[in-house]
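Notebook entry, structure prediction.
Reason for the run: the old model in the group folder had no record of what sequence produced it. Starting over properly, with the input documented here first.
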Amino acid sequence: MKKLILACLLLFSTCFYAQEKTEITVDRNGTGDFRNIQEAINSVRTADPRGIITIFIKNGVYKEKLIIPPHITNIHLIGEDREKTVINHDDHANINKMGTFKTYTFLLSGNDITVENLTIENSSAELGQAVALHIEGDRVVLRNCRLLGHQDTLYAGRDGARQYFENCYIEGTTDFIFGPSTAWFEKCTIHCKRNSYITAANTPENIKYGYIFNNCTITMANGINAVYLGRPWRAYSMTLFMNCTLPKGIKTTGWDNWRNADNEKTVRYMEYNNKGEGANTSGRVKWAKILSSGEAKEYTIENVLNGCDNWNPLTKTYQ
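New structure, fully documented this time:
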């Protein structure tokens, strides 16, 4: 009888511990709580009473088409090493005519998600649009991550949703940072692999801020020498490069109207205090704005990302 009672108590305590555990380990080699990242995410409950759940991911290549659904929030994903902890898939838009928005390697739809030290890769050949990271969530932070792909690498994909990228590496060919979200890129490296377009913002008319690149460095693959800073996917697209290093391969005109002169009347394309051989604004299109120092003061993390809930990604607080 005593043995039975002890066994029951042990079982109860194990279940209780599993429910209350706020740190989860994923390891492909089977030494963690789960072998796959999706299994770890699926273990998090809606409005989980445990609060913030940290999922630590050990080094390895995780061949997954990963989804954080909208009802899963307050997750902190941390890779062991951003070069060696890789989430990989290889869908592209022309597989069974799936289109761009089903090609993601990682679909992040939940709010209040932080991702650190991870590589997110769409390793498809250049056969069409192929999204590595598709973000629908609000108050999303990526730090020290790599986003690898070709066309359409990063889709910042919900009107008014806010995302903050810090010390990230993002590479691609055409429109490889695109979508309608409000996104701040701080000290990121943006690597161009084709003579094409870096951004294709889709900022709605009623949303004040689109993409802000601050203290970022644009780099070019060998032989690349004719890259536009952006073109408008939607007429009121907003993009600002400020305090960035722009290499020689940036087009003298800087921006493209996507074959529609009417876009020139509505787009919100701006530059301020950039440096490097590609930063000379004397040949820029007349419909792009070069900010004065006074005008540039408006563009702070607090102003751009604050919203009605006073969110600040540097302190991760909101109310």
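Summary: Residues 2-20 form the longest helix (19 residues).
The old model has been moved to the deprecated folder.
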